[in-house]
Specification:
About 45% of the residues lie in helices and about 10% in strands. With about 240 residues, the chain is an alpha/beta fold. It folds into 2 domains: about 150 residues, HAD superfamily/HAD-like (Rossmann fold), CATH 3.40.50.1000; about 70 residues.
């Protein structure tokens, strides 16, 4: 799907963004204190596999952290203690609060500039309720005309329905939308299936896992490094 040059943007009336690993990440914000994996006594990859395996109930809002984390912790580390789990249950929401309330100035500047192009802005995120509990306190919240969280709407990427829901809320057709993400959860393919133009944003991938950029780029119409770079490509819409 990747092309050598960005497509024409004259038809674009809205830009939708992924949240985690696109606009913010634990790896870039660096919350204080030990990571959840360190608290549980396992390496990061082991915890990531245990946490993300069969995670539909969590991201669709059917279960809560207090039920999910202990079960996943015991899969990752059968010797984990109740005290480690208690500490992890406290640490995880705090770490996500820090992440979504400590946003890079360049990202906020890019979103502010993007709003001057007369395009609608939306957010589409796969997340659990605890991960976005502090959303109302995030400097990102006022930047968007709508925020669609999987745990609130019972839909998750890459289901085309969640992208179309965001487009409906914005009052635009999916074909008039860019979707900007890091490519996790097959979200770029999902955006394409929904009729949107998928865009890869690499700022956080450069920190988290540069090896993920090339495979994700194959699912995107084009890629940019930052939100400001995307702004440089978009001309003010006449709509």
């Amino acid at each position: 799907m990747s092309t050598e040059s960005p497509p024409d943007f004259t038809h674009v009336r809205a830009v939708l963004f992924d949240l985690f690993h696109t606009l913010v990440s634990l790896e870039v914000s660096q919350p204080p204190g030990p990571s959840v994996s360190a608290i549980l006594g396992v390496d990061r990859d082991t915890w990531w596999r245990a946490w993300t395996d069969n995670s539909d109930d969590y991201v669709l809002g059917r279960t809560v952290l207090e039920r999910t984390l202990p079960a996943r912790a015991r899969i990752a580390n059968p010797a984990v203690t109740d005290e480690q789990i208690r500490q992890a249950l406290l640490a995880r929401p705090a770490r996500f609060r820090h992440t979504i309330t400590h946003v890079e100035p360049e990202t906020l500047a890019g979103l502010a500039q993007l709003r001057t192009t007369n395009r609608r802005l939306g957010l589409v995120s796969n997340c659990g309720k605890d991960e976005i509990a502090a959303w109302s306190d995030s400097p990102l919240a006022p930047c968007f005309d709508t925020a669609v969280f999987s745990c609130e709407v019972g839909l998750a990427k890459p289901d085309p329905a969640i992208y179309r829901l965001a487009a409906t809320r914005l009052g635009v057709d999916p074909a008039e939308c860019l979707f900007v993400g890091d490519g996790g959860s097959d979200e770029l393919d999902g955006a394409h299936a929904a009729g949107m133009t998928p865009v890869l944003l690499t700022r956080h991938l450069e920190v988290m896992g540069p090896q993920r950029i090339a495979p994700a780029a194959k699912q995107a119409a084009f890629q940019v490094r930052t939100v400001l770079d995307l702004c440089a490509l978009l001309q003010p819409a006449s709509h």
